[in-house]
Amino acid sequence: MIRTYRNPIFLAREWAEAMKAGNFRSQQTFARAIGLSHARVSQVLGLLRLYPDTLDALDALGDPLYSRKVTERKLRPILNLPKEKQCTKLLKMLSSLF
Q1: Quick one: average pLDDT of 20-44?
Q2: pLDDT confidence of 97, banded at 50, 70, 90?
Q3: Segments in the chain forming alpha helices (H)
Q4: Nearest CA-CA partner of 30 in 43, 15, 13
Q5: Cα distance between residue 25 and residue 44, in whole Å
Q6: Residue 43 has pLDDT above 90, yes or no
Q7: Which residues of 15-48 are buried (b: 16+ CB within 10 A; e: fewer)?
Q8: What is the C-alpha to C-alpha distance for residues 74 and 1, in angstroms, rounded to an integer?
Q9: Would you kindly state where each structural domain of the chain is located, as residue ranges?
Q10: What is the distance of C-alpha 23 from the center of its chain?
């Protein structure tokens, strides 16, 4: 059996949609409803602040992923980088997949 992992961008989008559909007033109430900490929900949803080009590249990987090379934890440090540096860091991360 091949192990698979969720693409963190797909997960973040699912959670954002679930929050909207469920009329949750805050990330904190959503976190309680799904049994996770507010911090964890905030970390995952924060990935949606990546630049569109970066999000597109991550989308192109599809879901599920067959490697843990791209995780929320590994993407978090590039969130506040300028667009060009985000792309460079992501390319380095992705190059190790192939």
Answers
A1: 96
A2: low
A3: 8-21, 27-34, 38-46, 52-59, 72-75, 83-95
A4: 15
A5: 17
A6: yes
A7: beeebeeeebeebeebbeeeeeeeeebebbbebe
A8: 25
A9: 8-95
A10: 21
Amino acid at 32: R
| Contact in structure between 13 and 72 (CB atoms under 8 Å) | no
Q: How far apart are CA 96 and CA 81, in angstroms?
A: 20
Q: In degrees to the nearest 10, what's the CA dihedral of 93, 54, 61, 46?
A: 90
How sure is the predictor about 69, in pLDDT bands with cuts at 50, 70 and 90?
confident
- Predicted confidence at residue 98, as pLDDT, reads 56
Contacts of 14 (CB under 8 A, 6+ apart): none
